[in-house]
Hints:
This protein has 84 residues and is an alpha+beta fold. The chain has a domain at 1-56: YefM-like domain (YefM-like fold), CATH 3.40.1620.10. The chain contains four helices and three strands, in the order βααββαα. It has helices at 5-10, 12-20, 45-51, 75-83, and strands spanning 2-4, 25-29, 32-37. It has a three-stranded mixed beta sheet with strand order 1-2-3. The protein is elongated and about 65 Å long.
Amino acid sequence: MEVGIRELRDQLSRHLAEVREGRTVTVTDHGSPIARIVPVERPTKLEQLREEGRIQRARSRKQPAPAPVATSGTVSDLLDEQRR
Length: 84
């Protein structure tokens, strides 16, 4: 079921009752889908993949990005210098 933002706001209780019954409500903004309201009991795709063993959590956290290199000139100048 698709519902616009205004209708969702005006009839929130009715749409949440639909979700309680197991239906998914897709929220649209000017006709474009922007969100889904799904029943809590239904696992997300990510949770399903994790339960199936097809994906797993990262073993370590991402490292922070290195500090920027201080330089003068433009990127084009730096590329020209590297190509020589």
